[in-house]
Amino acid sequence: MSAQSADPTPDPAARPVVEERPTIVMCPEGPMLLRGDAVIEDAEGNRHRTTRPVSAVCRCNKSATKPWCDGTHKLLPKKLRP
Amino acid sequence: MLLPKARGTLSEQLFTALREEPGTAVVLDAGVADDAEDRAIALWASYELHYRGFEDVDDRWEWSPDVLRVRAGLEEVLESELRERYDAHRPERTSDRVEDLAKDLFDYIAAHDGPSMARYVQTDATEAQTMELLRQKSVYHLKEADPSAWVVPRLPTGPKAALMELQFDEYGDGNPARLHQHLFERGLEAAGLRSEYGAYVDEATVPVLESNNVQSFLGLHRRLRAASLGHLAAFEATSSIPSRRMAQGLERLGFPDEIVEYYREHVEADAVHEQLAVRDICVPLVAMEPNLADDVFLGAFACLDTEDRQARDLLERWGVDA
User: Fold this and answer.
1) Residue of chain A minimizing CA distance to B164
2) How far is B193 from chain A (nearest CA, A)?
3) Which phi and psi angles does A78 have, rounded to 5°?
4) For chain A, which end, N or C, has fewer CB atoms within 10 Å of the first or last residue's CB respectively?
């Protein structure tokens, strides 16, 4: 081994640490994003398994495909959105 | 796929050259194009060399300087026309703060007013009109998500991972049977239409070709990566509700389940994708590179504008007031 000095201490600003992404995200005026496999029990007791890596769960209660978001929140007046 | 039919002087010259051996000296000038239609099909074919190519064209033509030169000339026209239209529809931002970008972008997209093809299909379109629409839409849907894939290696860590999360779902989450392009293929076949890639390019309208070209243009130029992602965000954010209307219209007309299912899949998928595209892709990219904010809106406008032009053109042909 040659007598090279040890690597300089890495500059933290040069290699930003990426934060772990959240599993659940509340989207302003929109759905709740849910990452990973999950089974959701709705208000009637019916169970729904997620079918994609990220799912959007309805929060405005007006979706035609509950428990999943179908974009209907965008048709509501702003004050009725989640 | 074979080369499409030429639609004028330039495309005739280009397609004649492409049938020769690569390296054959060709002098092509975008300036000889007869009109927008001639330019659109010539540009479309020059982009297609980067996707799946043509059975009657040697693959080595993809990087021919002669073809790239004529492509650049056509892109110059495409970009200047796009920017001219965008100048009349620039966003009124709440502020320059990245914290306001998601809201401003959603609002900009929602405020855009254009003819709704999905609403027409939902309640009024005939079977023949809907079949024609599916043939026109096939030019894009059979390569759905591909133009955004060019952007992946050009992004920093956060937006790159987020774009892949979205694209993974577009490509069926690893399951070829769920690949969105494939769902559309199955839908076309069930509806009695041809499903092979590029099957209906010869009847594609000029706005359909231009819309396709804009996506390839934004995807293939690194300097326009933020515009490509803005396009993606607007596309996803204007998809869920129209997809539900399309599904209802197709059911009204008695179309088979496979094509209805394609649109049903997009109701839920795109309710997720619009949030990812705006909040996890565009916003973090602009947070890192604030000077890209305007390009995001340019791309969003490009999507809304080209979708409008396709819809208006078809509705006009059908004699429908848009």
Assistant:
1) A53
2) 28
3) -55, -35
4) N
DSSP for B42-87 reads HHHHHHHTTTT--TTS-GGGGG-HHHHHHHHHHHHHHHHHHHHHHH
Could you state, in chain order, the average pLDDT of each consecutive group of 10 residues for chain B (322 residues)?
97 96 82 96 98 97 94 98 97 90 96 93 98 98 97 97 96 94 97 96 98 98 98 96 96 98 95 97 96 98 97 96 75
The correct answer on CATH 2.60.40.10 for the domain covering B92-317 is: no
Are B165 and A65 in contact (CB < 8 Å)? no
With both helix axes pointing from N to C terminus, report the angle between B257-275 and B157-170 in degrees, rounded to the nearest 10.
170
* Contact between A56 and B271 using a beta-carbon 8 Å cutoff: yes
Interface probe with A: pick from B275, B276, B282, B285, most Cβ of A within 10 Å = B275
Instruction: Identify the residue among A29, A74, A81 best suited for mutation to test binding to B, counting B beta carbons within 10 A and taking the highest.
Output: A74
- ipTM confidence score: 0.89
- Cβ-nearest to B272 among A56, A64, A72: A56
What is d(CA B109, CA B118) in angstroms, rounded to the nearest whole number?
A: 17
A30–B272 C-beta distance less than 8 A:
no
